[in-house]
Amino acid sequence: MKAFTTHKGIVAPIDLANIDTDMIIPKQFLKSINRTGFGPYLFDEMRYEDEGWYGKDCATRPLKKEFPLNQARYQGTSILLTRENFGCGSSREHAPWALDDYGIRAIIAPSFADIFYNNCFKNGLLPIILDKGTVSELFEEVEANPGYALEIDLANQVIRRGNGGEIHFQIDAFRKHCLLEGLDEIGLTLQSAEKIQAFETGHRERQPWMFDAIR
Amino acid sequence: MAGKTLYDKLWDAHLVESREDGTALIYIDRHIIHEVTSPQAFEGLRLSGRKPWRIDTNVATPDHNVPTDLDERKGGIDTIVDEVSRIQVRTLDNNCDEFGIKEFKINDHGQGIVHVMGPEQGFTLPGATVVCGDSHTATHGALGCLAHGIGTSEVEHVLATQCLVASKMKNMLVKVDGKLGPGVTAKDVILAIIGEIGTAGGTGYAIEFGGSTIRDLSVEGRMTICNMAIEAGARVGLVAVDEKTIDYMEGRPFAPSSDMWDKAVDYWRTLHSDDDAHFDAVIELNAADIEPYVSWGTSPEMVVPVSGLIPRPEEQSDETRRKGYQRALEYMGLEGGIPVTKIKIDKVFIGSCTNSRIEDLRAAAAVAKGRKKADSIQKVYVVPGSHLVKEQAEAEGLDKIFMEAGMDWREPGCSMCLAMNSDVLGRGEHCASTSNRNFEGRQGAGGRTHLVSPAMAVAAAVTGYITDVRALPNV
Ligand code: SF4
After folding, report:
1. How many angstroms away from the CA of B89 is the closest CA of chain A?
2. Quick check: A186 and B160 CB within 8 A?
3. Residue B132 in 3-state DSSP?
4. pLDDT average per 10 residues of sequence, chain B (475 residues)
5. Domain boundary assignment for chain A
6. Cys-Cys link to A102, which of A42, B117, B139, B320 (CB 3.0-4.6 A)?
7. How many angstroms away from the CA of A60 is the closest CA of chain B?
8. Which residues is B3 bridged to in the sheet?
9. Which CATH superfamily groups domain A6-183?
10. B410 inside 8 A of chain A by CB
């Protein structure tokens, strides 16, 4: 997994609450059996006039000009700024894959949907929760300043604004550690393999009907 | 010390390790696999040279994009028209064969929507931890187990380690008391609950549904309720075990065999919240106040009783909500202030893991009997949740009732719940649907979904409009 240490990038604002996973990556893309290649279809319905599918050439597709990712000033963006409950809806991991494949490294919002929030950390993306007021301030700054960028320093849990201001954010210590090190979660868990085995032995004694039923 | 909630008990019984950071390793008893969220997980296992920890906890079946049209379905995988769908279903077969995982293949007797198949096979057990790479896994919680939806990385994690990394949630009790009026169903109850607490109201909570109304529901009705816990933001929905649960389990193919049955049942009887258990939040609803519900917008909290009006955005004081309502109404091609019964319907979908079990089909058939689909309705899809449900319905003659009413009786699968196969809405079409999500584009790009109960879906099919099923003669 990609490690996340510090990252500086252009911020793109999407001023909408409750952006669901269908909007992030519409369901027709779930059919792919790959983990990569979803970037060109990120926000497909909001971004293009026509319908997309996995493998479609996006170079000639008609764009919805008002959508931020289609505007010149936000090209090369790697930080999304958005509103409440981002990522609600299904558990599809294609959503973080699509964001990652597009080049997004961090998302800033007042709140995230649970499953999506979890899925971000498993894919090297950093979701940052800031209070509503701060998010609104950032929206104003982004809109007023073309090329607006932020620097995110995960180790110090700080976002640095161009004007020198700093915003602190909260993050769970374990998640932070894994992101900083780019640690694979399965490998981490398997460090506890003996504990799992011991639990399993006891569980089999307590609830034997849970075992060997399916063949 | 306060007693434990059902969720606390299930959590404690599966806790392998608590980590300093507040997360924990939870042991997983049952893992259901389908074709959409698993290929990348199996790919991950292969890439890292890992093997499944324990094979006998997994069952797989393709459901999300299997065709539900008989002609396309007959020939199995080979006749799936859409190439990508075909590849996904075939990939599931190959992966299950390679790793030795039990699979109900596309036209096997046991095939069905994951959340219909698990309980009906007795694969889902009270007291178990159940996971599946689909957010409606909470459905299984109706049997008193700890079930939640996971993402593809977690599918791989569970396969490789038999554990899930989880954080303990807070406890919420949603208590519904009293008798439901005639024509009011489990679906209406859960839509009313979501309307009350909102789509983020349950975020971070495990919701236990209790109260006399929930106890009076059948196990299938409870599944409908738990199914949509995620639409209220909660990953977990639960109902305590009672005699109905135990009766439901008896005789299912994977249920505990006779020598272990009594021991299992003794344990299952302990699976309820203690009287003095502490809940972090309690929401109470009165069953008598619940009418048939209909969604008018693009989020499951955008619901009103069938006697209600579509809300006017300009009357919403909260700005985010006002904007959301405006956008939703624009997308839906509707206006605030009009009665929901003025909404004209183009297609009807009866199915999905919310409402495709035998009792749902019976409820739908009871309304359809002796009636005809309105001429203005293009198509009515009736899609049973599994092959077993389909057979049972046919044995009861329900298929004939639907066909005589001009409705399509189809093969089991997710179908138009998410429209990954060719069952889709056209742009701008309105659909009365028994599924669980009314997001933009969910049932086809530009499609407009109205969430309703099976009986209400048929009422819409026979009148062409959203209609109060209680107002139809002889219902
Ligand atoms: S019926 Fe719909 S919600 Fe249920 S598992 Fe299938 S796609 Fe998911």
Report:
1. 10
2. yes
3. strand
4. 93 95 94 95 88 96 94 93 91 97 96 98 98 96 96 94 96 98 97 95 96 98 97 96 98 93 97 97 97 97 97 94 95 97 98 98 98 98 98 98 98 90 89 96 94 98 98 84
5. 6-183, 184-215
6. A42
7. 20
8. B277
9. Aconitase, domain 4 (3.20.19.10)
10. no
